[in-house]
Design goal:
The chain is mainly alpha-helical and 372 residues long. Among the domains are: 1-118, Tetratricopeptide repeat domain (Serine Threonine Protein Phosphatase 5, Tetratricopeptide repeat, Alpha Horseshoe); 239-355, no CATH class. The chain contains 19 helices and no strands. Helix 11 (177-189) crosses helix 12. The chain is globular, with a radius of gyration of 25 Å.
C-alpha cells in the first residue's frame, strides 16, 4: 500500500520525534518549572510516567515561569509511548492545534485512535470531531458517526448530545428523529445542559415527540439554570410570542438581557431589535446603541448599522452609547468597540418601527464542544 505524504509525516511525528525525545537530556539547571524538584526530573528521565506527566503539566501551565509547550510536548510523548491515555489525548490535541509541535492532523488522529483502542471515550470523541469537520466527504461523515456512536454508548454526555444532532441532521447516517429523541433524552436526564436545551427544542419543534411548548419551556428552564444562553434566548422567545406561557414582552426582554450579559451576540441582536422597536420597554435608541456596538465587535453587518444609528441620535447620546459600551465590554467576553465606520447597506429611514432590524429570533441546535 502506497504511503501518503501526510501518513509519512504522522509516522515521523509518532516515531522519530518520539525517539529523539526519549534520548534527549534536558539540563535541569534553570530549566525546571517552580515547585518541580530535581528528583522529579530524574525520575521522569528514568521513565516514571507519573513524573513525566507532572513535568509536562508544569510546562503547559507555566508553573513559576513562562509556559513552554515544546518541553511539555517532549514529556507528553514519552508518557504517551508508555501507554498513558491522558498523555495520548493531550499530545493529540497539541498536534491538532500545532502547540509545541508542528500542526499535524494525521498524527493527532493516530494518537486519538491509539487512546480509543484502549477504551478512551475522549479519544473516540475527538476522532469523531475531526472527521465531522470533513463531513462533506460521505466516508468521513460515516466515520464521524461511528466514532461518535462508540463514545455515546460509553455514556460520554457530549457524544450522546452530538449523536442526537447527527440523527436530526443526517450526519453519516439517515435522519431519525426517534433515535435523536432517545439519545438527547438520555443526556438531558443526566443534567447535561446542551442536551437539556436540545431536548426542549425537540418539544418546541415537534421532532420525535409531539409539539409541546410547555414541555419545551420546562427543559429550557433546566438548561437556563446552568447558564445556557440558547435556553435563555428561547425562553424569551416563548414569552414574547405567548407559546406555552402567557405573552409577556417585558419578561422576554429580561431573558434576552440575561443571555446578552453572558456574552451571547444573538441575544444582543434581539435586544437591539426590542429597544429600537419599543417592545417590552419604551423605545430607547441609546440602550440599543450600546448593545449594537458590542455586537459590532464581532459582526461586520452590525458595523454597517452603527453609522445609521449614529445619524439618528444626538452627539451627546452617541457619547453616552460609547461610554456605556466600553464599560460593559469590561465584563462581557467580547472585544471593546473601536471606531466603527462602514458603508450602510441601503437607506435607514429613521426611528419608525419598520426601519429597525428584524424581530427577535430563536437560537438553533446546540452541538457539544470539543475536542477534549
Amino acid at each position: 500500500m502506497r504511503r501518503t505524504a501526510g501518513a509519512s509525516a504522522a509516522v515521523l511525528a509518532l516515531g522519530l520525534f518520539a525517539n529523539n525525545a526519549s534520548t534527549q537530556t534536558i539540563d535541569p539547571a534553570g530549566a525546571l518549572p517552580k515547585n518541580v524538584s530535581a528528583s522529579v526530573f530524574l525520575r521522569a528521565q528514568e521513565g516514571y510516567v507519573a513524573d513525566q506527566m507532572k513535568l509536562a503539566k508544569a510546562y503547559l501551565n507555566g508553573t513559576g515561569k513562562a509556559k513552554d509547550p515544546e518541553q511539555a510536548a517532549k514529556w507528553l510523548l514519552k508518557a504517551a509511548h508508555s501507554g498513558n491515555l491522558d498523555a495520548q489525548i493531550r499530545i493529540g490535541n497539541m498536534f491538532l492545534e500545532g502547540e509545541g509541535v508542528a500542526q499535524n492532523q494525521e498524527a493527532a488522529l493516530q494518537w486519538f485512535r491509539r487512546a480509543a483502542s484502549e477504551g478512551s471515550f475522549d479519544g473516540m470523541y475527538n476522532m469523531a470531531l475531526i472527521y465531522w469537520k470533513n463531513a462533506a466527504d460521505p466516508q468521513k461523515a460515516e466515520q464521524a458517526f461511528l466514532w461518535m456512536q462508540r463514545a455515546a454508548k460509553r455514556g460520554f454526555l457530549p457524544a450522546m448530545n452530538n449523536l442526537g444532532f447527527f440523527y436530526l441532521e443526517g450526519v453519516g447516517t439517515q435522519t431519525d428523529d426517534v433515535e435523536a429523541e432517545k439519545w438527547l433524552r438520555k443526556a438531558a436526564k443526566a443534567h447535561y445542559a446542551p442536551a437539556e436545551y436540545n431536548y426542549g427544542k425537540l418539544h418546541e419543534d415537534g421532532r420525535g415527540v409531539p409539539q409541546d411548548h410547555g414541555k419545551a419551556l420546562e427543559w429550557y428552564s433546566k438548561a437556563a439554570k446552568q447558564g445556557h444562553a440558547g435556553a435563555l434566548i428561547n425562553i424569551g422567545y416563548l414569552h414574547l410570542h405567548g407559546l406555552g406561557v402567557s405573552q409577556d414582552s417585558a419578561k422576554a426582554l429580561k431573558y434576552f438581557k440575561l443571555a446578552a450579559e453572558g456574552g451571547d451576540t444573538w441575544a444582543m441582536e434581539n435586544l437591539v431589535s426590542m429597544y429600537l422597536r419599543g417592545i417590552g420597554t419604551p423605545r430607547d435608541p441609546v440602550a440599543a446603541g450600546v448593545w449594537l456596538l458590542l455586537v459590532a465587535a464581532s459582526d461586520s453587518e452590525a458595523r454597517m448599522m452603527v453609522e445609521h444609528l449614529r445619524a439618528e441620535v444626538s452627539p451627546v447620546q452617541w457619547k453616552t452609547i460609547e461610554q456605556r459600551a466600553v464599560k460593559r465590554a469590561g465584563h462581557i467576553p467580547l472585544a471593546a468597540p473601536n471606531d466603527w465606520i462602514g458603508s450602510p447597506k441601503g437607506p435607514w429611514s429613521g426611528p419608525s418601527q419598520s426601519s429597525a432590524p428584524g424581530g427577535p429570533g430563536r437560537a438553533g441546535w446546540e452541538r457539544s464542544p470539543g475536542p477534549c
